[in-house]
Design brief:
247 residues, two-stranded antiparallel sheet, alpha/beta, single chain, Rossmann fold, globular, seven-stranded mixed β-sheet, 9 helices
Length: 247
């Protein structure tokens, strides 16, 4: 039985309401065990919409997770959207969520390395792991609702995925193509801008938002303070969307 639900129910944690079709209550698809769309996902989708880049373009979504970004691109009228994630759970969730939303998304397992074989793309979008990670992260007690650790852990400086992604971006883009990337300022915005510019792209911040620490950063607040990554008592982070254009 097919039911109509709003996206706020379909993708938990999102306040943006869109009516879509999906299976009935017994078969409702959820974003477990993958990263649930949150503030960063929403900020990226907003930047995608405002940019006007998506309609009638070939789109690549890297680190797709639940498929929310890719599905949003399809809803915006892209010519096609291909989504990659290294996690088989994410691939299954994304495929199911796209089918439930009634849109076509080509979901594949793998990293940007495999995506190179499918390109180039007019637009690349990504919400990659970017959270600075302490050496004792395995001992942390974090609410399971935050999602699996592989969806956000990204090394001591948060750049384990960002650095190779910035370096590979030009190879993924067609001539005049664009990258839209969301990350935390804790992972180094200037580092991303410098890396993208060093690879030959024109890069700038196009959106930003200050948000309170979620469960992951709250659990790491003391470590972030001790390592000088946040001021004492700081419990907010800035998330930004970077746009990089290939000319």
């Amino acid at each position: 039985m097919v039911a109509l639900l709003v996206l706020t129910h379909y993708f938990a944690g999102i306040n943006e309401a869109m009516t879509i079709t999906c299976p009935g209550p017994g078969d409702t698809l959820i974003a477990e065990p993958v990263y649930r769309p949150q503030h960063d996902s929403r900020l990226l989708v907003s930047a995608m919409r405002k940019s006007g880049l998506i309609p009638k373009r070939r789109v690549l979504d890297l680190c797709t997770g639940s498929g929310f970004i890719a599905i949003s691109a399809a809803e915006m009228g892209c010519a096609s959207v291909t989504a990659f994630d290294i996690c088989p759970h994410a691939v299954r969730n994304s495929r199911g969520n796209a089918a439930g939303a009634g849109v076509k998304v080509d979901v594949r397992q793998g990293s940007w390395v495999k995506a190179l074989d499918c390109g180039p793309f007019d637009v690349v979008v990504s919400n990659p792991p970017y959270v600075p990670t302490p050496p004792d992260a395995d001992d942390e007690i974090i609410d399971a609702a935050a999602g699996p650790s592989w969806a956000w852990n990204a090394g001591p400086d948060g750049r384990l995925v960002l650095d190779p992604l910035c370096e590979s971006a030009p190879k993924l883009l067609s001539d005049d193509g664009s990258l839209l990337l969301v990350q935390s300022a804790l992972a180094g915005v200037e580092e991303s801008l410098d890396a993208l510019r060093a690879s030959g792209l024109e890069a700038k911040v196009v959106a930003s938002q200050l948000i309170p620490f979620g469960p992951v950063l709250s659990a790491r607040a003391a470590w972030l303070e001790e390592t000088g990554q946040v001021p004492r008592g700081c419990r907010e982070e800035e998330i930004v969307v970077i746009r990089a254009d290939k000319s």
